[in-house]
Amino acid sequence: MDHRLGPVSQVEDGPVSQVEDEEEEEEDPCCNISKKAKIWGILLFVLVLSAILGVVFGVLKLHQAPQLKKWQGAGTTLHFREIVLGRCYAYTQLMKPELRVKDCQKIVGAFMGAVLSKDPCGFTEEDYQPLIKLTNQTVPCDKTLFWSKSRELAHLYTEVQQEMFTLENTLLGYMADGLKWCGDAGSSELNYQSCPDWRGDCANNTMSVFWDTVSKRFAENACGVVQVVLNGSFSNAFNKNSTFGRVEIYNLHPDKVSTLQAWVMDNIEDVHSDSCSASSINDLKSILSNRNIKFTCQSNYRPIKFLQCVKNPEHSSCNSLI
C-alpha cells in the first residue's frame, strides 16, 4: 500500500503544481492590463478636467469687461443701437415713406461697423463712407436750410415748413441727432463709460468726424437757393470756426447753388448784437463772392419771428407783428 500511495502521490503532485504555475502565468497579463487601464483612466480624467477648467476660464475671461481707455467726454448713449434702428424705421416707414426701400438693418450694421474695434481718436471721412452710401438721399432744390448757433429756431421752422430740410431732417442726421457714441480699439463693444471730447482729447474723434462728414455731403448736395439761420444775439453771427463756417460754406457747388439767403435772428429774450451790416456777415458775403455765389441777408426774418412770438406771445417785440 505504501508503494501504491507513493506513486499516486507523485502523480497528483506534479500536475497540480503545473496547473497552479499556469494559472499564475495567466493572471499576470490581467493584472498588467488592469494597471494600465487605471493609469490611462487617470490620464484621461486629468485631460478632461483640464479641458473643462480651460473652457471655464475662457468663458470667464470672455465675459470679463475689457479695460477701456478713459476720455473726458460722456460715454455712448444707452441703447444706442436700438435707438438708431428705431429712428431709421420711423423715418423710412412713416416720415418719408418714399425711402421705405432703405434697409435699416444694413444701415445700422454699417454704422456699428464704422465705430467698433477702432481707436475713437483716429477717425477719417473714409470710416463713414459705407454708411454714407447706404443713406444717400436727395433734398429738393431750394429746400436746404443751414443753421449756426440757432438750432432750436431752425428746427422750429422746418416743423412748420416741412418741405424744408436741415441736416437733422435727413435720414442720417435724424438717426444720429442728439446721440453720443464711440468704440475702443481693444473691444468689440461700444464704450458706454466715456468718449473723446473734441477740446480735451482730440478733434478727429468718432462724432466730430461724423458730423463734419455728413455736413460736407449735405452741402455738396444742395442746389438752387439755399438758406441759413444765424444768431444775431452773438457778436459774430457768422463764425468761421463753426461747422457752417468751416465745412458747409466751402462745399457748396457754385454750379449748383445760385444764391445763399441769410436770416439773422435775435434771440427774443436777448439783446440785439449782430445784423446784416455786421462785420462777420460781411466776411460771409466776401467768401461767397469769391466762390461766385450770390448773397442776400435779412434781419429778423418775419416768418421765423412769428414762430418766436408763438412761443413768447407777451414779449414786447411781438406787439408790432399783431
Strand-helix topology:
Elements: H1 2-63, E1 73-74, H2 80-95, H3 104-115, H4 129-134, E2 145-148, H5 151-160, H6 171-176, E3 194-195, H7 206-220, E4 224-231, H8 243-248, E5 257-265, H9 279-290, E6 294-299, H10 302-311
Parallel strand pairs: 2-4, 4-5, 5-6
Antiparallel strand pairs: 1-3
Any descriptors?
322 residues; alpha/beta; two-stranded antiparallel sheet
Commentary on this structure:
With 322 residues, the protein is of the alpha/beta class. It is 48% helix and 10% strand. The chain contains ten helices and six strands; from the N terminus they run αβαααβααβαβαβαβα. The protein has helices spanning 2-63, 80-95, 104-115, 129-134, 151-160, 171-176, 206-220, 243-248, 279-290, 302-311; strands at residues 73-74, 145-148, 194-195, 224-231, 257-265, 294-299. It has a four-stranded parallel β-sheet with strand order 2-4-5-6, sandwiched between helices. A two-stranded antiparallel ribbon has the order 1-3. β4, α8 (243-248) and β5 form a beta-alpha-beta unit. The radius of gyration is 39 Å and the shape is elongated. The termini are far apart. 29% of the residues are buried.
Strand order of the largest sheet: 2-4-5-6
* Overall residue-averaged pLDDT value: 88
Q: State the helical fraction.
A: 40-55%
Q: Which outline best applies?
A: elongated
What is the number of beta strands? 6
